[in-house]
Write a structure and sequence with these properties.
Shape of chain A: globular
Radius of gyration of chain B: 33 Å
Number of strands of chain A: 10
Number of helices of chain A: 7
Distance between the termini of chain B: 42 Å
Helix content of chain A: 25-40%
Largest interface: A-B, 34 and 29 residues
Strand content of chain B: 15-25%
Strand content of chain A: 25-35%
Shape of chain B: elongated
Radius of gyration of chain A: 17 Å
Structural class of chain B: alpha+beta
Oligomer: heterodimer
Number of helices of chain B: 18
Strand order of the largest sheet of chain B: 2-3-8-5-7-6
Strand order of the largest sheet of chain A: 6-7-8-3-9-10
Chain lengths: ~230, ~425
């Protein structure tokens, strides 16, 4: 135990009741450490996305226990969970979901403005720094909607990084990108993991991508069937 | 404004949503603008007219009028005496006994009333049904015998006198002040002579010393002021004969209570101005109800406009709402974003509406209308009090807030996972 845990689950179970009773996650016991680069794989319907959204605090309809950064999530209100996401989790989705009326830099600043820990000027500088890190600082003042798919995904990664989250969660972050851009996204993640010890938890069906990560969790019918650490 | 735009993140999101939907935003805004403008115009016209009417009514009818009410439908004495079951009593064409409407001991009553702390003025009068005659023209009407200086304290006769002078009614023994409409009907001018003829057959030769315009059309067509002594002559009455005592109060809101007390105390009917004009007030009530129903409907319709555009924006922005929730915006933040949008529409549309309503009032109010109906008005009178404008504005804001809150609540309730989940 040389590093602390970000997420620990104990007997995590989830049921869907609509349209029929369905046991989506079965007795998940998981321990994700700080600095790990984890991918979750499995066939569609295996429960990998469901698990991600439960772990992301957005879905609170489950049984069992989740400790996030040492805190039990069960007792937290909806608003408190929103605060946890804002401060400690960065998200990258299949589609970038940038706000089209705002510029690139404004999109990146958005979670930090919500957190309201630093002044607007400081946040601006931090956001610029993230854009530089991802090599898109030239696009800072462009409208988000005017960018290519690959560029938009980089902006989304910059936005995920802005509050220095404990973990970045991704739901098929390369699912909508060509192989060249997918490669680039992996390189970015890998770099962040190496140089900043950034933790990642990425759901993907891209086996190429998964194989390069440090830990692969495979789900089948809501159960973890493999948990391979390299 | 610029500062607010920069600083408040949520406000920024609201603002940019609207900017990106300029045309629909302007249409929704115009809905509110016209709603409020009509509110101000229509409601202002209604209440303005009523206010004018009430003011003129207060000025022309006494706060409290004391008179001897003739008793109606007295059962005949004969039928009261009839205790025999089998008897048939005939009584044909009964006539009321000669009962005088005179107020007895009028002077004492007047002196008593003048000492009352809430009484501003007391004016006795004697009214006679007469025929005004000038040449071959005859008009029937009412000659009101008054002490003109006392009457002036009550009804501001001098202010409404458009020709001649009211003082001459005291100085010229056979002076008469005619209503404007009456003078027109008789085709007489100041200083002309006319004859008045009472129902008892007494004729008096009078000289027109003034022409009066109260603004209430019916009154100006039928009423003339004469000296109280001349009225007594017309009715062949002694010189302490009066039938009415009118009272002006310092606080007219106490009229009802005081009237009740006086009625008990004096034994004569005491009618306060609200009771005397009760039917008009009930007409006003219905009028107001209908007007405000229409105006409210218009504002609610403009509320639907806002509701509509917000639903449209929200539907289109579901992915944005989902990502905002994912990155840590709370439900109440989402509500605030969309509620702010509706309030921006409501407030800016509302301010424009206030301006438009004000302009309409001023433009229509400056056109000479010469209304001769209930009251005589040269120009339409609008209620343009700040309170009325504020009321209209706040009413619109409340409608807007409700129209905005319902979709905003719906937006906040959306489950981000359904939208964000990879397909």
């Amino acid at each position: 135990m040389n590093s602390s845990s970000i997420i620990i689950t104990k007997n995590l179970n989830k049921f869907y009741h609509d349209p029929v009773e369905f046991h989506a996650l079965k007795n998940i016991n998981l321990d994700i450490k700080e600095g790990e680069f984890v991918s979750i794989v499995g066939a569609s319907g295996s429960g990998k996305s469901t698990m991600l959204y439960v772990l992301s605090t957005m879905d609170s309809d489950y049984s069992g226990e989740i400790y996030f950064d040492g805190e039990l999530l069960k007792n937290k209100s909806k608003d408190q969970l929103a605060e946890v996401r804002n401060e400690k989790i960065g998200f990258v989705f299949q589609f970038h979901y940038l706000l089209p009326e705002f510029s690139v830099i404004e999109n990146v600043m958005m979670p930090a403005l919500k957190l309201n820990k630093y002044s607007r000027d400081e946040i601006y500088l931090q956001a610029m720094e993230k854009l530089k890190l991802l090599d898109i600082e030239k696009l800072a003042h462009n409208k988000a909607s005017k960018l290519s798919g690959g560029q938009q995904q980089r902006v989304a990664i910059a936005r995920a990084l802005i509050n220095h989250p404990k973990i970045i969660m991704g739901d098929e972050p390369t699912g909508n990108l060509d192989s060249k851009n997918s490669e680039a996204v992996y390189d970015i993640f890998r770099n962040l993991n190496k140089s900043f010890h950034q933790t990642f938890l990425i759901v993907t069906h891209d086996l190429n991508f998964a194989e390069k990560t440090d830990r692969i969790i495979q789900l089948k019918d809501g159960e973890i069937i493999h948990d391979i650490k390299k | 404004m610029k500062n607010l735009l920069k600083k408040d993140n949520l406000f920024q999101i609201s603002y940019r949503h609207l900017i990106s939907k300029k045309r629909q935003t302007i249409v929704a805004m115009m809905g509110v603008t016209f709603g409020i403008a009509i509110f101000i115009f229509q409601g202002g016209l209604m209440t303005g007219f009523q206010k004018t009417f009430i003011e003129q009514t207060i000025n022309t009818s006494a706060n409290i009028r004391i008179y001897n009410e003739s008793k109606k439908n007295l059962a005949s004495i004969l039928s009261q005496l009839n205790q025999y079951q089998n008897a048939i009593v005939f009584l044909r064409n009964p006539k009321p006994k000669d009962e005088s409407p005179k107020i007895k001991r009028a002077n004492e009553i007047i002196q008593y009333l003048q000492k009352h702390p809430n009484v501003e003025g007391v004016s006795p009068n004697l009214s006679a049904q007469v025929i005004f005659r000038s040449g071959i023209t005859q008009v029937s009407g009412r000659a009101l015998g008054v002490d003109i200086m006392k009457e002036n304290i009550l009804f501001n006769v001098e202010k409404y006198n458009i020709q001649g002078s009211i003082v001459k009614l005291q100085t010229i023994p056979n002076g008469i002040i005619l209503g404007e409409g009456l003078a027109e009907l008789l085709n007489v001018k100041l200083n002309d002579n006319i004859t008045i003829l009472s129902s008892l057959g007494v004729a008096l030769e009078m000289k027109v010393v003034g022409i009066n315009k109260s603004g209430i059309t019916e009154l100006d067509k039928t009423r003339a002021y004469i000296n109280i002594r001349n009225a007594q002559k017309l009715l062949m009455a002694e010189n302490d004969y009066i039938t009415d005592i009118n009272i002006k109060l310092k606080d007219i809101n106490e009229s009802q209570e005081l009237a009740e007390n006086l009625q008990k105390l004096l034994g004569y009917k005491a009618l306060d101005w609200k009771e005397a004009n009760a039917n008009i007030f009930s007409i006003f009530k219905i009028q107001n109800m209908v007007t405000y129903l229409i105006i409210t409907t218009i504002l609610i319709v403009s509320g639907f406009g806002i509701f509509n555009i917000l639903m449209m924006i929200i539907y289109e922005k579901l992915p944005d709402i989902a990502i905002l929730k994912a990155i840590g915006f709370k439900d109440k933040d989402i509500v605030r974003i969309f509620l702010t949008e509706s309030l921006i529409i409501g407030i800016s549309g509302g301010i424009l509406g206030l301006g438009l309503g004000f302009a309409l009032q001023k433009i229509i109010g400056s056109i000479r209308m010469n209304v001769k109906g209930f009251v005589t008005l040269e120009y339409l009178q609008f209620n343009s009090s700040i309170g009325f404008y504020l009321f209209a504005f706040f009413f619109a804001i409340i409608v807007t807030a409700i129209a905005g809150y319902i979709p905003a609540r719906k937006a906040a309730k959306t489950d981000p996972i359904d939208i964000l989940r990879a397909k």
